[in-house]
Every structure is written in C-alpha cells, then in structure tokens.
Amino acid sequence: MAGSKQNMNHVRQLLLVAILFSAIALSCTNHSHKNDPKPEEKTFPEIHTGPATFHVLGGVIETFTVNFEKFGNVPVEEYGVVYAFLPETTSVELVVDGPYPAAKFKGTAKLGLNTETFKIGFPTNMHALSYRAYVKVKGGEVRYADNDFTKVY
C-alpha cells in the first residue's frame, strides 16, 4: 500500500512538472493577439503624365507636368518626366536611368498638378517627342505613370 501511494505521488509530481513545462512553452511562443496592430501594407503614389507646353516660337519644351492623384504611405524621394526625341513616332521604353534623359523636378511634390519649367531645345533631325512621368520612392523603387504622350513637331 505504501508503494502504491508513493507511485501515485510520483505520477502527480510528473504530471505537475509536465503541466508547468507546457505552460512555459506556450507562453514563450510568438503568436498574435486580435488586438495586435497589423504591419502597414505599402501603398505607392499614383501619378499621371500631364501635358507639356512648348515655347510659342517652337523648338523648346517650356514645361512638363506630373499629376499626383494620391501619395500613399511610402515617401517620395524624386519625381519628374523621362523623355525622348525621336525621328518618328515609334514606341520606346521610357525608364529612369535608361538611354533617355529625365527632367527631374526640384520642387516638393504636392497633390494635384506639379509643373516645372525646363527650356529643353529640340535636336535637329528629330520630329517627335515621347514622355511620361515617374516617381522614385524611399528605397529606390521607381513607379511610372499609367499614361504617356507622343507629340509630332
């Protein structure tokens, strides 16, 4: 009888130790609670290419326009317009750090139309201008406007 009582005490102690270890293990796991804040999803600025204006006497781009529809939650580091003078109206890939120049805006971006003066002269033997807006966000990612323009001159 004494041995049976001793075995029961031993089983209870082992059970208590197992429960204690389980409680410690469960309290140390990385689990979320329904009230924990979720990490914020990145939302990028939405931009559109606005019309360019040309000098009344011709041969010079006076301004480019970038229209910010919304900013999102990723800070803007740079924005502007990538452009290409072409001999004819052919489709080209207008990307930042590509073969074509970019007109980088100096002013701080604001919602709505952002227009800056550049005074870029037209090269000879070229008859078309293609351009589209871009925005570079913190971290270096570049986003492009969903529209572009090609003008024959």
Q: Give the N-to-C terminal Cα separation.
A: 109 Å
Enter the CATH topology name of the largest domain.
Immunoglobulin-like
**Uncertain residue ranges:** none
For the record, the CATH class of the largest domain is Mainly Beta
Structural class of the helix and strand makeup? alpha+beta
Helix content: 10-25%
Q: Mind telling me the CATH superfamily name of the largest domain?
A: Immunoglobulins
Shape: rod-shaped
Number of strands: 9
Helix and strand sequence: HEEEEEEEEE
For the largest beta-sheet, the strand count, sense and barrel status come to: 5 strands, antiparallel
Strand percent estimate: 35-45%
- Cα-based radius of gyration, to the nearest Å: 32 Å
The second-level CATH architecture of the largest domain is: Sandwich
Please count the helical segments.
Answer: 1
What does it look like?
By secondary structure, the chain is an alpha+beta fold. It folds into 2 domains: 1-29; 46-152, Immunoglobulin-like. 17% of the residues lie in helices and 38% in strands. It is built from 1 helix and 9 strands; from the N terminus they run H-E-E-E-E-E-E-E-E-E. It has one helix at residues 2-27, and strands at residues 46-49, 53-54, 60-70, 76-86, 102-104, 112-121, 128-137, 142-144, 149-152. Strand 2 (53-54) and strand 3 form a beta hairpin. It starts with a helix and ends with a strand. The mean pLDDT is 84.
